[in-house]
């Protein structure tokens, strides 16, 4: 069996400097896909860039935490996953309606999304997973992120490794609710988020299993908009960008015979 790899960047549309990093990682590096935030401050620019760079496979980065609602722009979404949990418990958020409004905005902008994932992996929560499954079928989006890292990264913090292992308890629920939709065979990127450099990227590529894998990443340029944004991933985005365009990264792919693909041709 061959080794096929989708390198997918989250947060397209977050800020203009994040957009710039994603496009650079695609044009000059190994990035093949990205997911677009309908409520991102740089949404319109991201849509324009997607038209300029049609080889970049664009999907939906569904946002249930942070930023403004697309369904009701006067309302702020929960600031954290913990706040989202409380809001879901109290049934304060129309999850499906919000998800549908976000996908509709992206489709109406002329994007035909091939895949969908969620900001902060919130589709690990059953009500969000239900909404993701429903809107994916409604809009003909074939692929949904299966956010369970293969293996355990010895370089990750213990808490992150434990969370990654614990997340795997959701695998049967994902399989049941996403039946009929497509997922990659494997996923990686959660445990290296915030510390993905050339060394950790090479180490992950060396461990890449046979089959189809999504490698999640967060490249960007550390410009004024990103510096001012509410995110912990700032300088790390520049480091990830450097790893994605590094010649040594390409050499590992070639030596291992890893084929770069996207969701549209998988």
Draw up the topology in text.
Layout: E1 3-12, H1 16-28, E2 33-36, H2 43-52, E3 57-62, H3 81-89, H4 95-108, E4 115-118, H5 126-138, E5 143-144, H6 158-167, H7 171-177, E6 186-188, H8 198-206, E7 211-217, H9 224-228, H10 235-245, H11 247-256, E8 258-260
Parallel strand pairs: 1-2, 1-7, 1-8, 2-3, 3-4, 4-5, 6-7
Helix pairs in contact: 1-10, 4-5, 8-11
Q: What portion of residues belong to β-strands? A: 5-15%
Task: Compute the number of structural domains.
Answer: 1
Order of helices and strands: EHEHEHHEHEHHEHEHHHE
CATH fold-level name:
TIM Barrel
Q: Please name the CATH architecture.
A: Alpha-Beta Barrel
Low-confidence stretches: none
Reported for the largest beta sheet, the result is: 8 strands, parallel
Rounded to the nearest angstrom, the distance between the terminal CA atoms is: 14 Å
CATH superfamily label: Glycoside hydrolase/deacetylase
Counting DSSP E segments of at least 2 residues, the number of strands comes to: 8
The CATH class turns out to be Alpha Beta
Shape: globular
Q: What's the average pLDDT?
A: 93
């Amino acid at each position: 069996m061959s080794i096929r790899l989708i390198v997918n960047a989250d947060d397209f549309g977050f800020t203009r400097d994040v957009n710039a990093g994603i496009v650079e990682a695609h044009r000059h590096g190994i990035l093949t896909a990205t997911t677009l935030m309908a409520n991102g401050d740089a949404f319109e620019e991201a849509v324009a860039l997607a038209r300029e760079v049609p080889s970049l496979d664009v999907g939906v980065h569904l946002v249930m935490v942070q930023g403004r609602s697309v369904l009701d722009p006067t309302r702020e979404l929960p600031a954290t996953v913990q706040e989202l949990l409380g809001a879901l418990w109290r049934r304060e958020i129309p999850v499906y309606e919000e998800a549908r409004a976000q996908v509709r905005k992206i489709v109406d902008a002329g994007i035909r999304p091939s895949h969908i994932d969620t900001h902060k992996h919130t589709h690990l929560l059953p009500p969000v997973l239900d909404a993701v499954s429903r809107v994916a079928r409604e809009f003909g989006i074939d692929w949904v992120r299966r956010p369970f890292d293969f293996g355990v990264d010895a370089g990750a913090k213990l808490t992150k490794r434990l969370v990654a292992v614990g997340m795997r308890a959701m695998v049967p629920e994902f399989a049941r609710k996403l039946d009929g939709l497509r997922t990659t065979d494997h996923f990686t990127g959660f445990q290296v988020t915030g510390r993905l450099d050339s060394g950790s990227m090479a180490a992950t590529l060396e461990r890449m299993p046979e089959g189809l894998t999504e490698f999640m990443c967060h490249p960007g340029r550390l410009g004024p908009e990103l510096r001012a944004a509410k995110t912990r991933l700032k300088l790390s985005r520049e480091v990830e960008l450097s790893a994605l365009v590094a010649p040594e990264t390409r050499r590992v792919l070639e030596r291992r015979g890893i084929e770069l693909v996207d969701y549209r041709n998988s």
